[in-house]
């Protein structure tokens, strides 16, 4: 039997951690740190520069289904290396941009190619190496790189920017991204265990300890994309994914604003946001272990109840204790928004056409994430407070996790029929 310590899949998880700690963290989680310096230097309004983030999200959403198909046709290492290079150079190019149209053009390129170096290829590879056992843990390790990368990026860049300027910070981050993504993609990433003569994690135990005839390692099970689209399971699941994106983005992007609107200082608002980020680093592994140990249904019930409790605490956020409790609970379970779509998609729809299905799921999730902050802002502008927003989100959370449970039940019935 192969020694588990030599199993290469854990190096895949570590390499994925490094990649998500760079382009994913920098582009999607910490790029907002450039907003004030850029707008002050170039005379843009906050709204004009914020459109950069929106364009990235839209480009990512549009390109995701296409990238899901591409990674199944070509060697994923070269796709990741190419996309990593384009993304890195594009991000560095922000340091040269002086006009809004230049920022917007770069954003479109950045968002499109980011799909080839972030969630979609990483989730695809992790699923190949960990089809069942330890998939939650491996996925959690990989995606925790995003939170840690964002935390470190914000900490380092916020101290460097006043000294060297935002332009050089763009150049520096672009250069670091280029080195990490290209080297890890080419020399660490392996698409599947068979590429180096290994088997997926846990397969040896199954074939050794089970009397049943196991399926060949390369036989892929699950839905094709065509089958998925034609099923009720898919569209119920998509509804849950969209709502998940709406709620999490709608809450997360407005935490500092809400805290200050109810009388807390900017320093305290930043502290609450930092607690969410720090807890988010641990959240990925916690969520992965929870879903693996408790199972999808029980795990998602626990996560749903915890998220509802966190928003209830947010309603009473004027009290310091409840504000801190919100940050601790919300941060501890926030990873369901980062790793949830990839993990749940593989569990429900299998590996047969995983890349294409995940690409479509990510597209809908991104659209939900784009709606959430706008919805929160619209309600606040209309009512002058966030209370109604949080009540609406509590209701949406109940609907979201109930819909997930319905999708799991529908998927289970289809499996029983087959």
Describe this entry's structure for a reader:
The protein is mostly helical. 79% of the residues lie in helices and 0% in strands. The chain is built from 19 helices and no strands. It has helices at 9-29, 35-42, 46-73, 76-93, 100-114, 119-129, 135-164, 166-187, 203-209, 225-229, 232-252, 255-261, 266-294, 296-315, 320-333, 335-338, 340-349, 354-383, 387-417. It is globular, with a radius of gyration of 21 Å.
Outline:
With 418 residues, this protein is mainly alpha-helical. Helix content is 79%, strand content 0%.
SSE topology:
Elements: H1 9-29, H2 35-42, H3 46-73, H4 76-93, H5 100-114, H6 119-129, H7 135-164, H8 166-187, H9 203-209, H10 225-229, H11 232-252, H12 255-261, H13 266-294, H14 296-315, H15 320-333, H16 335-338, H17 340-349, H18 354-383, H19 387-417
């Amino acid at each position: 039997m192969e020694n588990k310590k030599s199993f290469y899949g854990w190096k895949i998880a570590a390499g994925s951690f490094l990649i998500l700690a760079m382009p994913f963290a920098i582009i999607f989680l910490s790029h907002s740190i450039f907003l004030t310096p850029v707008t002050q230097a170039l005379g843009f309004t906050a709204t004009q520069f914020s459109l950069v983030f929106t364009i990235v999200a839209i480009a990512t959403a549009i390109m995701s289904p296409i990238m899901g198909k591409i990674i199944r046709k070509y060697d994923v290492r070269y796709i990741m290396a190419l996309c990593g290079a384009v993304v890195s150079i594009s991000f560095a190019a922000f340091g040269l941009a002086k006009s809004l149209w230049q920022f917007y053009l770069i954003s479109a390129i950045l968002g499109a190619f980011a799909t080839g170096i972030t969630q979609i290829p990483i989730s695809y590879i992790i699923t190949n190496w960990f089809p069942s056992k330890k998939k939650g843990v491996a996925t959690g390790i990989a995606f925790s790189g995003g939170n840690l990368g964002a935390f470190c990026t914000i900490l380092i860049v916020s101290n460097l920017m006043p000294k060297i300027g935002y332009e050089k910070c763009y150049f520096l981050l672009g250069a670091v991204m280029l080195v990490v993504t290209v080297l890890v993609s080419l020399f660490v990433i392996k698409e599947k265990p068979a590429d180096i003569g290994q088997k997926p994690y846990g397969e040896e135990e199954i074939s050794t300890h089970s009397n049943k005839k196991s399926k060949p390692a390369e036989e892929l099970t699950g839905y094709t994309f065509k089958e998925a689209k034609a099923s009720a399971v898919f569209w119920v699941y998509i509804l849950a994914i969209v709502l998940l994106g709406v709620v999490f983005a709608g809450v997360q992007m407005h935490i500092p604003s809400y805290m200050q609107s109810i009388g807390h200082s900017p320093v305290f608002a930043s502290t609450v946001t930092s607690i969410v980020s720090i807890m988010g680093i641990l959240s990925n592994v916690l969520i992965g272990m929870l879903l693996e140990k408790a199972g999808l249904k029980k795990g998602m019930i626990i996560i749903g109840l915890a998220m509802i409790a966190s928003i209830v605490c947010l309603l009473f956020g004027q009290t310091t204790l409840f504000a801190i409790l919100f940050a601790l609970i919300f941060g501890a379970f926030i990873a369901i928004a980062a790793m949830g779509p990839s993990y749940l998609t593989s569990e429900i729809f299998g590996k047969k056409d995983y890349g294409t299905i995940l690409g479509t799921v990510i597209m809908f999730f991104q659209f939900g994430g784009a709606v959430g902050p706008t919805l929160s802002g619209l309600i606040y502008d209309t009512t002058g407070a966030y209370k109604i927003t949080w009540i609406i989100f509590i209701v949406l959370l109940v609907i979201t996790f109930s819909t997930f449970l319905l999708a799991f039940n529908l998927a289970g019935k289809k499996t029983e029929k087959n």
